[in-house]
């Protein structure tokens, strides 16, 4: 199923793209929850982390390299940032095209809002 993120990667709908190459696309989240909130996606459609295979290892590793580059470019490498990937319902995944959130620009607080 083609998602809105696949269309962004293909250039079919607009987004504020900060980085793109043959494997990944990174763009600003439309509803940011931090001063810096970037989404990094594989150009290939992978719905969730649960759909990842060994064939995806290089692309997924590349997402971390791109995250590091963007963090440095945006000046938050030293202050720190959070990388987050939601998988399916309990994590609140909304868009079923695997994506890594890059969050920073302020102290992000504890990792989870609620504790058991
Ligand atoms: P998740 O809950 O992990 O699936 O996160 C989905 C994220 O995608 C949310 O933070 C949304 O604000 C963001 N989002 C949804 N549609 C767009 C879009 N067209 N452009 C940029 N970000 C989007």
Give an account of the 3D structure.
The chain has 116 residues and is of the alpha+beta class. It has one domain (4-104): HIT-like (HIT family, subunit A, 2-Layer Sandwich). 24% of the residues lie in helices and 22% in strands. The termini are far apart. The structure holds adenosine monophosphate (AMP). The site of adenosine monophosphate has 12 residues, from loops.
Bound molecules: adenosine monophosphate
Please tell me the CATH architecture by its name: 2-Layer Sandwich
Q: What fraction, in percent, of the residue positions are helical?
A: 10-25%
Count the helices. How many?
3
CATH fold-level label: HIT family, subunit A
Q: What is the CA–CA distance across the termini?
A: 35 Å
- Structural class of the secondary elements? alpha+beta
Structure in a nutshell:
The protein is α+β, with helices and mostly antiparallel strands and 116 residues long.
Blueprint (SSEs and pairs):
Elements lengths: L3 H7 L6 E4 L3 E5 L7 E7 L14 H17 L7 E4 L3 H4 L8 E5 L12
Antiparallel strand pairs: 1-2, 2-3, 3-5, 4-5
The structure holds adenosine monophosphate (AMP).
Adenosine monophosphate binds next to loops.
């Amino acid at each position: 199923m083609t998602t809105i993120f696949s269309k962004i990667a293909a250039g079919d709908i607009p987004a504020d793209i900060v980085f793109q190459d043959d494997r990944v696309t990174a763009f600003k989240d439309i509803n940011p929850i931090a001063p810096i909130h970037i989404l990094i996606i594989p150009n290939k459609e992978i719905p969730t982390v649960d759909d990842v295979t060994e064939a995806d290892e290089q692309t997924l590793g590349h997402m971390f390299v791109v995250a590091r580059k963007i963090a440095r470019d945006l000046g938050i490498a030293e202050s720190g940032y959070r990388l987050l990937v939601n998988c399916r319902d309990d994590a609140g995944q909304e868009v079923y095209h695997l994506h890594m959130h890059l969050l920073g620009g302020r102290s992000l607080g504890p990792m989870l809002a609620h504790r058991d």
